[in-house]
Amino acid sequence: MDPVKILERKLERAILARKQAEQILEEKALELYNANQELKILNDSLEHQINDRTTQLKESESKYRLIVENATEIIFKMNQKGNFTYVNNVAEKLFGYSEKDIIGSHFSAFIPDDHKKEVFDFYLKVRDESEEETYLRFPVEAKNGDIHWIGQNVRLIKEGEEKVFFAIAREITPLIESERKLVKAREVAEKAQKAESLFLANMSHEIRTPLNAIVGMSHLLGDTNITKDQEEMLEILQSSSTVLQELISDILDLSKIDAGKLEQNIKEIDLRSIITKITRTFQVKLDNKPVHVESEIKGDFATYLLGDGGMINQIMINLVGNSTKFTKDGFVYIRLIELDKIDNKRRVRFEVEDTGIGIAQEKVDLIFKEFKQASSEIKDSYGGTGLGLAITKKLIDLQGGEIQVESEIGKGTKMFFELEFEDTQKAILSKKEYELKAIEFSSKNDPVLVVEDNILNQKYISSLLKKWNLKYLIADNGEIATDLCKQYKFGIIFMDLQMPVMNGFEAAEEIRKSGLNTASTIIALTASTLLTKKNKALENGMTDFLSKPFNPNQLHRVLSTYLETHEANLEVSAQTEIGELSEALDTVYLKEVYEDDYEYMADMFDTFLKITPDEFSKLHDALDNADIVQVASVAHKIKPTFQMVGLPQLTEQMTNLEKLAKASGNIHQLRKLESSLYKDYIALKPVLIKQLENLNCWNNLLVKS
Amino acid sequence: MKGIVFTEFLEMVEGEYGYDMVDAIINKSDLPSGGVYTAVGTYAFSEMGMLLHNLSVDTELSMPQLLNTFGKYLFYTFVKNYPGFFEAAPDAFKFLESIEDYIHVEVKKLYPDAELPTFDTTRIDDNKLEMIYKSERRMADFAEGLIEKTLEHYGEVATIAKENITENGTEVKFTIAKAI
After folding, report:
1. What are phi and psi of A84, to 5 degrees?
2. Residue A574: which pLDDT band, with cuts at 50, 70 and 90?
3. pLDDT on residue A213
4. Which of B31, B61, B91 is the last residue of a domain?
5. CA triplet B32, B36, B42: central angle to 5 degrees?
6. Helical spans, DSSP H, in A366-524
């Protein structure tokens, strides 16, 4: 081995290695330089981006801050415990608290004690029921102690992992104040209206008492011997006072409703009978007018329902009265319709439809206003106070119904409403429940005591008691009454409630305490139709009450309930027993038509006796003049009336006469037929007259127990 | 293979046997690089194989022996050039455990083309560490030399048990147990 050669090779390798290393390092240096350049560019761009982003962020932040800080609403955040974590500067402007006062504090620190719980519950509800957004109004106490109301919308929002309350609130103090003022104004207005109604009610009452005496006394005056002239005057007196009574009663009703004093008197009622009676009443009333009143009852009304029969009666009388008033000729239909029957609830529709003059659509609302009618012409030509429908509407409202009207000018009007009743499921008894008795008071009865300060009323009651052969004493006030009660035992005591010296309540209590009359019957005489007063009377030891004004029948009914009686031994009853109608008449038919409504029957007999002579004279004239057309016409008109008084055979004969007149027109035959018919009529007329007297007599003494 | 391995190897051979031996094994081997190496260059692993083979023939020392010796030699270079890695680890086990997840990661950053073996370590107990060497280069003996020097560096005494997992030596398990 040549050491020189080896050394040369070593040197050569070292040189080559160095060059190689230099080259590699050169390349690496270049790479490094390039990489550095690239890094610098990237760095620059990154810096740029960061700057841009920072600027954007700053802008957007200041934009939002501007919005939040310049908002008129308070904006705040609160953690779930109820401590504020953020609030904008509006809170400071409104309430004076600095941000430092608020942040970290619990919300309850700013709320008056009496509202704390409400607000607490509200936030709990927002948190636990996670409702989308909720609104609450509540007061906040400002730093200076002022109370501000705010209306606040709150939501639960997610902030990182946690949920926090986010709320926007607005000051609503002026709104709350104006609301309060409104409520106060309404209260004042309502109070004023009530005061007015109360005044009306009191006034009406004051007018009613003397009027009651006028009606009563004129009633008694009629029983004395008076001349024909006086009788006519008396009639005017009676009819005028009746009109006045009705008007006052309407005003009283209206004011009582408005004062919220009218209460429903819920009792078991028979709707079918109410409707039937009203129908009959109007059929009789309209006898001279070509208006037919008919009733239609759909559904099952065989059980007693719970309702205020008096109110329904008043409503229906008003509606039917109204319809008949505005219907010149044609029909008035009264309908009672059962709508649903669910368990023991029944929905019932009442309808009154007529073929009258109708109301323009735009006037419909007007007719239910007090003292308003569709037009002044209506008032001039039809009369009326304009109170009837206003009362009707209020009475229906009071029972939870709503009156509705369908009408067309010249065609007619339909008024209807629906009411709900509870069904007692108790079957309505047949008409036999009316026990008919003629009653006389036993002479064994203890005397009657009348405690009443009004002289006219004293006279009215004492005249009646005298008429019925009852002994009596009069006391001007409660004190005199209690003295008398220590000395005498009375069968019945009539006690007025409002009297000087000692009122009825005190007197009744005193009488009950000791003496001879601790167990006597005491009847309160009250002008009040309010149940509360009546109940008070019963609580104070009264046995029963009698509402003023009362008619002789009502007084008689009370007396016969509490005093000993026996059946009357009257002349009339000896001749014909009531219910046993004259055998010359078709009693089966009469009973079927009138059932036991003797008043209505009497009315029909009376009308028949009044109109038939005229009709016969018309018929005779026609026959004399051989006016066959007129014969047929008159015969057609009067033929149904005979049946109504129990003479169907005459109705049949009249029908034959009409047929003959229309068919052959033989005047001789007609005259012959008519004269036989007339002879029968004349023969039967005394029976009818007697029957009418009988009916009138019974009607006067009839007692329904 | 990184150039530093070649330069260190040839330095070691020169130091032990003189440059004559270096010149001899280079001349005997058919080297694409012509035996010119620089620490910053990269050369084919096969060149190292040939150099080792020819050294083994000339010195009559076994390949495992040569590799172990080379490993021990290279350790000093590492300590000299990269003292930070040693300072970071307080004891030998901690250092050995840091090779895979720390040192090799750093090496890859510096030399992205470096081909490194993997060392999976399992601490059996306070005094026993299991280390699994995996590499297609089959240089477990080289690794053993490094491990031995590491223990020495930290002044620790331990036995090293070596066990082939694969027959050809691509996977070898070292069990290092400290003397108590």
Report:
1. -70, 135
2. very low
3. 79
4. B61
5. 70
6. 376-382, 388-398, 455-467, 478-487, 504-513
Measured between beta carbons, the chain B residues lying within 8 angstroms of A1 are 20
Tokens of A414: 């339909």
How far is Cα A332 from Cα A495, in angstroms, rounded to an integer?
Answer: 45
Nearest to B176 by CA among B166, B167, B162: B162
CA dihedral over A19, A24, A26, A29, signed as positive or negative: negative
Question: Looking at residue B150, which CATH number applies to its domain?
Answer: 3.90.1520.10
DSSP string, A148-188: EEEEEEEEEEEETTEEEEEEEEEE-HHHHHHHHHHHHHHHH
Interface of A with B (CB under 8 A): 1, 3, 6-7, 9-10, 13, 16-18, 20-21, 24-25, 28
The pLDDT of residue A131 is 65
Of A6, A20, A24, the CB nearest to B23: A6
Which of B15, B32, B61 represents a domain boundary (last residue)? Answer: B61
Q: Are A311 and A395 in contact (CB under 8 A)?
A: yes
**B26 and B78 both lie in a single domain:** no
Pair B88, B139 in one domain: yes
What rounded mean pLDDT belongs to chain A?
A: 83
- % of chain A with per-residue pLDDT over 70: 89
* Structural domain count, chain B: 2
Q: In what order do the strands lie in the sheet with B118-125?
A: B118-125, B128-134, B171-178, B158-164
**Is there a single domain that holds both residue B94 and residue B141?**
yes
Q: CA of A377: how far to CAs of A86, A124, A306, B64, in Å?
A: 73, 66, 41, 138
ipTM above 0.95, yes or no: no
Q: Do B38 and A24 touch (CB under 8 A)?
A: yes
b/e burial code for range A651-688 (CB count within 10 A of at least 16 → b): bebbeebbebbeeeeebeebeebbeebeeebeebeebb
pLDDT of residue A587: 77
Same domain, B74 and B54: no
Mean pLDDT of the region A159-172: 89
Strand, coil or helix: A29:
helix
Cβ pairs A/B, distance under 8 A: 33
Please give the pLDDT value at position A487. 87
Q: Are A453 and A483 in contact (CB under 8 A)?
A: no
Q: How far apart are CA A520 and CA A490, in angstroms?
A: 7
Structure tokens at A282: 């109007």
Question: Burial level of A150, CB count in 10 A (0-12/13-18/19+)?
Answer: buried
Per-residue confidence (pLDDT) for residue A71, from 0 to 100: 80
Query: Are B22 and A28 an interchain contact pair (Cβ–Cβ within 8 Å)?
Result: no
- Comparing CB atoms, the residue among A1, A16, A24 nearest residue B36 is A16
B78 and B153 inside one domain: yes
Neighbours of B113 (CB within 10 A): 7
Q: How many CB atoms neighbour CB A205 within 10 A? A: 16
SS3 A80: coil
B29 close to B51: Cβ distance less than 8 angstroms: yes
B125 and B39 share one domain: no
Beta partners for residue A545, in sequence order: A524
SS3 for A96-156 is: CCCHHHHCCCEHHHHCCHHHHHHHHHHHHHHHHCCCCCEEEEEEEECCCCCEEEEEEEEEE
pLDDT tens readout for residues A39-74:
999 999 999 999 999 999 999 888 888 887 778 889
Same domain, B18 and B39: yes
Q: What are the structure tokens assigned to A428, written together?
A: 């309505």
Cα B28 from Cα B33, distance rounded (Å): 13
Q: Which of B26, B27, B38 to mutate to test the interface with A (most CBs of A within 10 A)?
A: B38
Q: Containing domain of residue B26, as a range?
A: 3-61
A529: its two tokens = 């139709």
Which stretches does DSSP call E strand in A203-344? 267-269, 291-298, 303-307, 330-342
Instruction: Based on the fold, state whether residues B116 and B170 are members of the same structural domain.
Output: yes
Neighbouring-strand partners of residue B163: B173
